[in-house]
């Protein structure tokens, strides 16, 4: 049984590592074509919720506890803000920088998990987290042109948006796990999509009454990229749910940061972002920290 869980969790982590940076590529491509970040996220939620209805037999609408509903509502609201801020950051910033910055999510998730889920990390786990942060410093220093790392980097709009996004999504991960523990990863995924769509739809009705028709037309024109985005986001979230069900939040979020290498490579491949060598070195340090957490945390 443990072997089965370990194998399933490992596969989920691998899928998530590949699918997440791909979704960031598609999100950035859509925003470069004038797609609004809020509308992109809302349309993604809605499309995935409709797809979930194809698996009706695995869904459940009754008998879910109050803890499940409270956790899912909190998780959905946090995820909504986190995803919108993420896409806004990708719109104005480099994927090869913003991807590795996401390493701080594991720190937030670790601290939140300690207080809400009583998941206490070991010393090696903490050392792994430190390596992840160190690696992100190397990546960020690339923006400073021979001046090395500077705290002023955190004043950049795209970095502030990315940090806000990771804080929301890290705390979201804790509440999402609480919901998964009293249901299943698939049920939690369905309500994550459905509630997320409801929240973003209300936001759109309040702020985008005049633009939504234009945005619908844009997504139809860019339907190949949009479908690819929905597929990658769906795989990312299902894989995240399965991984969260099988391991602690702090360690799961840390392992997800091994996608930093792909974010750097994708940033160069798709958007010709510069400083590839230094960013790869920093991402490599991040991956080392994640491996350390996995093996010894």
Summary tags:
single chain, 297 residues, mainly alpha, 13 helices, disordered N terminus
Question: What topology emerges from the helices and strands here?
Answer:
Layout: H1 2-32, H2 37-52, H3 66-92, H4 95-101, H5 104-116, H6 123-141, H7 157-181, H8 185-207, H9 212-221, H10 223-246, H11 249-256, H12 260-271, H13 276-296
Helix pairs in contact: 1-3, 1-10, 1-12, 2-3, 2-8, 2-10, 3-7, 3-8, 4-6, 4-12, 5-7, 5-11, 6-13, 7-8, 8-10, 9-10, 11-13, 12-13
What does this structure look like?
This protein is an all-alpha fold and 297 residues long. The protein has one domain. The protein is 79% helix and 0% strand. The protein contains 13 helices and no strands. Helix 5 runs parallel beside helix 7 and helix 9 packs across helix 10. The longest helix has 31 residues. The chain is globular and about 45 Å long. The two termini are 22 Å apart. The N terminus is likely disordered.
Roughly what fraction of the amino acids lie in strands? under 5%
**Termini Cα gap:** 22 Å
Low-confidence stretches: 1-5
In one word, what is the shape?
A: globular
Count, helices: 13
Secondary-structure content class:
mainly alpha
Largest beta-sheet characterization: none
Average pLDDT taken over every residue: 83
Q: Could you say how many structural domains there are in total?
A: 1
How many extended strands? Answer: 0
Structural Rg: 18 Å
Helix/strand order: HHHHHHHHHHHHH
Helix content: over 70%
């Amino acid at each position: 049984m443990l072997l089965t869980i370990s194998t399933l969790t490992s596969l989920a982590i691998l899928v998530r590592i590949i699918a997440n940076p791909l979704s960031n590529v598609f999100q950035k491509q859509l925003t470069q074509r004038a797609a609004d970040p809020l509308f992109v996220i809302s349309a993604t939620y809605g499309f995935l919720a409709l797809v979930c209805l194809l698996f009706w037999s695995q869904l459940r609408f009754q008998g879910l506890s109050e803890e499940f509903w409270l956790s899912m509502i909190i998780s959905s609201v946090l995820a909504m803000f986190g995803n919108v801020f993420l896409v806004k950051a990708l719109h104005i910033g480099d994927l090869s920088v913003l991807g590795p910055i996401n390493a701080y999510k594991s720190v937030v998730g670790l601290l939140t998990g300690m207080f809400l889920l009583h998941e206490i990390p070991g010393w090696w786990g903490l050392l792994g987290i430190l390596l992840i942060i160190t690696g992100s410093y190397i990546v960020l220093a690339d923006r400073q042109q021979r001046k090395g790392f500077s705290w002023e980097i955190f004043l950049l709009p795209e970095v502030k948006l990315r940090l806000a996004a990771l804080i929301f999504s890290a705390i979201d991960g804790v509440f999402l796990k609480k919901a998964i523990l009293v249901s299943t990863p698939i049920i939690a995924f369905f309500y994550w999509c459905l509630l997320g769509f409801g929240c973003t739809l209300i936001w759109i009705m309040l702020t985008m009454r005049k633009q939504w028709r234009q945005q619908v037309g844009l997504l139809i024109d860019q339907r190949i990229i949009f479908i690819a985005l929905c597929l990658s986001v769906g795989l990312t979230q299902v894989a995240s749910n399965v991984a969260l069900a099988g391991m602690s939040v702090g360690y799961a979020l840390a392992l997800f940061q091994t996608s930093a290498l792909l974010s750097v490579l994708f940033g160069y491949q798709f958007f010709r972002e510069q400083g590839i060598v230094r960013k790869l070195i920093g991402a490599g340090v991040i991956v080392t920290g994640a491996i350390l957490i996995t093996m010894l945390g």
